[in-house]
Description:
Blueprint: H1 2-11, H2 15-19, H3 21-39, H4 45-62, H5 76-95, H6 100-116, H7 120-130, H8 133-145, E1 156-161, E2 169-175, H9 177-184, H10 191-195, H11 197-204, E3 207-210, E4 222-228, H12 242-245
Antiparallel strand pairs: 1-2, 2-4, 3-4
Helix pairs in contact: 3-4, 3-6, 4-5, 5-6, 5-9, 6-11
Amino acid sequence: xxxxxxxxxQTGELEYYIKxxxxxxxxxxxxxxxxxxxxxxxxxxSQIEQILATSKLQYESxxxxxxxxxxxxxxxxxxxxxxxxxxxxxxxxxxxxAETEKIGRIIYELFDIYIKSTPGSMNKIVGKIMxxxxxxxxxxxxxxxxxxxxxxxxxxxxxxxCDGSEHDFxxxxxxxxxxxxxxxxxxxxxxxxxxxxDYLVFKAQGIGFSRTQTLGNGGTxxxxxxxxxxxxxxxxxxxxxxxxxxx
Length: 247
């Protein structure tokens, strides 16, 4: 067992998470503090305290199960860490007997309150940069390289040129680290609910966003499409979204 631990440390897969555990737990506790507001709409005070306590234990365990995909150098690492926040809470909700659809709704509400905790002006600035000529050039180069796609739990993305009429540009995701991580944890049925958070993100950033399919919901890819000044639909209820029915 000691030999296995040494090998993991040498590859950076465990060392990175051990080194940054305190920071990750601190961020998760902030997320739980926000999440408590959401939980109050669905559970009693005693249930909430149990969910919060169990979530902390679950997350502390999940930290060591997170795959290494380049650490801070890869923006996908933050996505994986946040997906572990959600998974820790999901497992606690399952322990309380919550059904899948109710958990999905809570996941969406957790993302909503988290995104709203960021100043609106900051979200708008990010959106303007992303859809600027400079921002699109940077994204194009980034996704052309796909520097971290060789990791089993990494992402593979392709920048899509658009004619500027219906969309300004697009992004096709053919491999998703969150999908892989959740499948490895036996939680793949919840992945499609995490995908809905994208609608909240881009709406807050003032970006027109649409999508017809996702890997998390059984599609062959996630076909993100963006439009400056366009509209982003609500992600809930998901039945109103094309990606949910894939028709």
